[in-house]
């Protein structure tokens, strides 16, 4: 495997790092950048993100998508009520191509439909203009007191 070091103050990774815990802590580092057209997330592919043929592992790509779309769903839920959170109900991915060591993967997700208790999201993950994966997810909104609602 090729030696790899993160460039100091990488301009492609502008923004605040996401501090994921548990399994999510193995995914990054992932950076969140607020832009005029929404939030963009970025991650540089390191050796521990690769599969046996030196491409970004599909599970790693799916983990990135899950974290990014979860962050967007949580932000939407919190904008409705500070006591609300989002949980994944369904998550689907379609692979288009693979990233390579050193590539910067960017991800963006949008809420495409929202009801009182359910959010529908779509996301796109790219290296430059090349799409690596598209994803869609359905997230339930619940309050921290445990109240849940069904689809409306």
Task: List strands and helices in order, with pairings.
Blueprint: E1 16-17, E2 31-35, E3 38-44, H1 58-80, E4 84-95, E5 104-114, E6 118-127, E7 130-143
Antiparallel strand pairs: 1-2, 2-3, 3-5, 4-7, 5-6, 6-7
Structure, explained:
15% of the residues lie in helices and 40% in strands. The protein has one helix at residues 58-80; strands at 16-17, 31-35, 38-44, 84-95, 104-114, 118-127, 130-143. A hairpin with a 3-residue loop joins strand 5 (104-114) and strand 6 (118-127). The model has no long low-confidence stretch (mean pLDDT 87).
Encode the helix/strand succession as letters: EEEHEEEE
Overall average pLDDT: 87
Alpha-beta classification: alpha+beta
Inertia-based shape:
globular
Largest β-sheet summary? 7 strands, antiparallel
Total strand segments: 7
Q: Quickly count the helices.
A: 1
Beta-strand percent range: 35-45%
Distance between the termini: 50 Å
Low-confidence stretches: none
State Rg. Answer: 16 Å
Instruction: Kindly report the spatial arrangement of strands forming the biggest sheet.
Output: 1-2-3-5-6-7-4
Helix share of residues?
10-25%
